[in-house]
Each structure stands twice: as C-alpha cells, then as structure tokens.
Amino acid sequence: MEDTGYGYKTWSPLAGNTITADLAEPLGWPEPCRVLVDPTNDLFHESVSDNTLLEVLTVMDQRVTGTPVSAHERHIYQVFTVHAERMCEFMSRVTRKFGTCMGGPWKMAETGDAMLNPVPTLHGDGLREPAPNLQLGVIAKNQASANERIPWLLNTPAAVRLVKCELVGPVDLDVADNGETCLSPECWGECGWCATAATRGDMGCRNRGGDGSLHRVDGIVVAGQSGPEASPMHPDWVRLVRDECIESEVSFYFEGWGAWAPSEDCPESTGEERLVNYDDGVGPLLMEEFDGQSFAKMRCVGREIAGRVLDGRTWNQLPVQRWREG
C-alpha cells in the first residue's frame, strides 16, 4: 500500500446512459491524477449499453494507442458500482480469454472481428489483460450488500479491486466472500471449487498448480453519507473495517464522516444529535435512554466540519498500482 501525492478529479463521461462531450476530457489533463468516474451515475447500470461502456473503457485504457505511456495515460481511474453482477459479466467478456483487442478501441468477443495488431500481453496470445490503470470496485452499505456484491467483484478481471463502504450498518469483511475473508483468501486445494467454478477460475488455486493466493480485495474506502437524508455512521463500524485491513495488510482509506460526526469530536457544534446503535444503526429517540454501551452519540454538523479524522489521524492508504509498460 502507499500514501500518494496523486490528486483526485471527477469525470462524468455519461449523462444518464448517453455519452457526453466530456468523454475525452481526461486526455487533456497535463498531470497524472486519480479519476473518480461518474460518481453521480453508475457506469454498469443496465440502461448503459455495451457499446457505450466500450467507448468509455477505450478512453481509460492506457494501452489502446500502442504509443509510449504519456502523462495523461498515467491517470488512475476508479469505478464504483452497485451492479456487481453486470460489471463481472461485462468485464469478463472484454478481457483475458473472453475478449479480443484491436489496435484501437476495445471490441466484444462475439462480434467476430478479426484480430488486428493485438496489444502484447503477458500471455503472448493477443488477448487483453485487465487495464493496469483501471481500479474496479463495488459499494457496500451493510453486511447483506457486501455478501452479495463482493463475490462478484472477486470474479471480475481487474488489476486492482476496491470496496467502498458507505456504512449504514456493520460490515465484517472476514465473512463477505461466501463466508470466507475477502482480504486474504487462501486455497488449500481440498475442495476443488476454484478449479471447476466457471466464473472464478482462480489461477491461485492449488488444484491448478497455483500458490494458494486467491483473488482478493486490494483496498477499502470508507465514507459516511452526506446530504439532507444522510444517516450517521457508528465509529465502531469504521474501526472494525480498519482493523481487519491492518491485520490483512490491505490498504484503508477513510474518506470522511459525511454529515454526521462523533459528538465528542465537535463539542462546540449545535447541530442535531442522534444515538446510533451498533447492531442496526437505529437508536432511541430520547437522549436520556443512552446507555453508553452499544450506542454512539453522533451530531449533524456537515461534511466540512465533520472532517476525516479517525482516532486522532487521517487514513490515506491506497493500493499499490500494478503498472505494466508496453
């Protein structure tokens, strides 16, 4: 993991499900940066066509032109979605054994186009590896959404896999992959599942001659909600995720508390105060019912005042980017 000087920019290549005039905007940015892709739209929503996705993917992929890597091609793109199954299905069709690469825009495998000037890959077979500067992630709000979306993420071809936790309840990442950890999974070669599962096919499976290291989540981002309908986030939900990341040596980035901060961190503020239960986020309406145990006192102060300090420090860890030249 690394602390990086890269700045963040947002990029909105879509308006709903339609390409906008901003599609090529990142190509004109002179300095490399981290790019949050379409934070107000979901790139993998079912209404976005495959061809539209391919146009966006072509802009993000640093290897399409076949020319030496320049500044704009060092941008690191982050895409988060709640449509994890669509992302897995789509990316599986356009990467590795499922897809072919032309010497320009991406093409779908089922188009039948001949492969012209394939970009070199680690396999040497003309098939495209996942873009090294594209980080794919899912959004988890509670344990149920984590359990549903993270297995699809682990099945998705990607150079870097992320989970963004916009918490409204506790999430235990050590049980989020079909009851197993998604942070440091390991195969002991006993069940044969990896070798036979059509969607996973993990090359780390010992039954396939691997070293036992399976696909894992590379980084976790935790962010509180903002806006008039925002729900407060219990501090211990954040600590649980952080502590699991530390134990598994997975990067942890705390984006901030959102609209609600721990009351003890903003004693001078006069915003609404609310109690948050650890188990389900619901607290008693009356402050005198506060028992000081499973509840946390949170105050609505706005995103700027709430800040992004957790236990006396900021957390800016990011996964190491796996660059490959050429």
Can you summarize this structure?
It is built from six helices and 14 strands. With 326 residues, it is α/β, with parallel strands linked by helices. It has a domain at 8-182 and 217-258: TIM Barrel (Alpha-Beta Barrel).
What would you note in describing this structure?
The chain is an alpha/beta fold. It has a domain at 8-182 and 217-258: TIM Barrel, CATH 3.20.20. It has 6 helices and 14 strands. The strands form 4 sheets. Strands 1-4-5-8-9-10-11 form a 7-stranded parallel β-sheet, with helices on one face. A 3-stranded antiparallel β-sheet has the order 12-14-13. Helix 2 runs parallel beside helix 3 (143-155). The longest helix has 14 residues, at 235-248. The two termini are 24 Å apart.
Topology, please?
Layout: E1 8-11, E2 14-15, E3 18-19, E4 34-37, H1 50-60, E5 76-81, H2 84-94, E6 100-101, E7 106-107, E8 134-140, H3 143-155, E9 160-165, H4 193-196, E10 219-223, H5 235-248, E11 251-256, E12 260-262, E13 273-277, E14 295-300, H6 303-306
Parallel strand pairs: 1-4, 4-5, 5-8, 8-9, 9-10, 10-11
Antiparallel strand pairs: 2-3, 6-7, 12-14, 13-14
Low-confidence stretches: 1-6, 97-127, 195-200
CATH architect. name of one domain: Alpha-Beta Barrel
Fill in the CATH topology of one domain: TIM Barrel
What spatial order of strands do you see in the largest sheet?
1-4-5-8-9-10-11
Alpha-carbon distance between the two ends: 24 Å
* Assembly state (oligomeric): single chain
Percent of sequence in beta strands: 15-25%
Strand tally: 14
What is the typical, i.e. mean, pLDDT? 77
CATH class type of one domain: Alpha Beta
Overall SS class? alpha/beta
Helix content: 10-25%
Order of helices and strands: EEEEHEHEEEHEHEHEEEEH
Shape category: globular
**Count of alpha/pi helices:** 6
Using only C-alpha atoms, the radius of gyration works out to: 21 Å
How would a textbook summarize the main sheet? 7 strands, parallel
